[in-house]
Every structure is written in structure tokens, then in C-alpha cells.
User: Fold this.
Amino acid sequence: MTPESSQKQFRQLRILSNPTRLDIYTNLWTDGPGTALEIASRLGTDDLLTYYHLRQMVAAGLLEKTSVSGVTRNTSVFSATSRMSIDNLDVTEEITMKAMGKFVEAIAKRMTHEYRAAADALGNEIHKRSHISRVATRLTAEKQAELKRKITELSEWIDQNSSPEGDRLAVTVAVIPLS
Assistant:
């Protein structure tokens, strides 16, 4: 990994550790591109604050901003451009470890919020439509590399099979060494 790509990953990690930015990122993947006003409306957030976060995410390379000609002026449309993946990030520095911890915490909080909202909306149906598993195991370095490849394949499969007509889903996979 080059120092530039490592810095980019670190910046993206810090950007997505913010719950509002994580919500925006998730929304753009599930509901598609939108203007700052549309995204703020979908999330129930403040317009100016949403625009601020969108600008930060564009600068970090997580989103793309395109200009669309309107009747009276140009409008900016934002779309997600790349999936967040943290590979080979140097976590020996304390600042990186703190950022990684904050990111994992933001993901866990978001998953809890999403599950509760789905349970409220779906009632007992939530158990038929969700899958949660946790596996604690021991794997050799070779099998860990194989697991990483399979998770990458799964992510690619999800991207290839995503459909606007389908149900909105959150898929979170984390492999974390146990101490």
C-alpha cells in the first residue's frame, strides 16, 4: 500500500466515523444519488449541515459531485463512488487506533439503530427477514487470507446484484482478532 492510499483510507475512516456522514453514505448506496436538499429530506437532517458533510465526503473521495443544469441554476447531485474498505492500514499509531475504534463504534451504533427501527416497523417479521451470526474461531494465516478473499467476493456479488426494486438492506461484515 502506498503512503497516499494509506492516507486516503485513514481520512475516509475518520470521515465515516461521524454518525451523520455514515447515514448519508448508507443512504446514497441504498436510495441512490440526490441533491443536498433531497438527502437532508430523506434523512430528516438540517440542509446546511448535510451539505457541509457532503463536501467533506467529496473531498475524501467517498462521494462524487456532479452539476446538473436546472431551469434557473445548476444543481449539485451527490452519489457514492466507492465502497469503504480498510486494508493494510497501519494501526501502530495511536491516532489511527483511536480513529479505527471510533469507526467500529459508529458502525455498531448504526447497526443497533437500524435493527431497532426494522423491528419496530416489521414486528415478528424481522426474524424472518434478517440474519445475524457471530462466529469465534481460530484460523491459520492462510485461511485468514482466504476468508478475506471470500468477503471481497461477497461484497462484489452484493454490488452486482443490487436492484432499485429490492428491499433496503445493511450488510456488515467485520473480522476482528480476539485478544
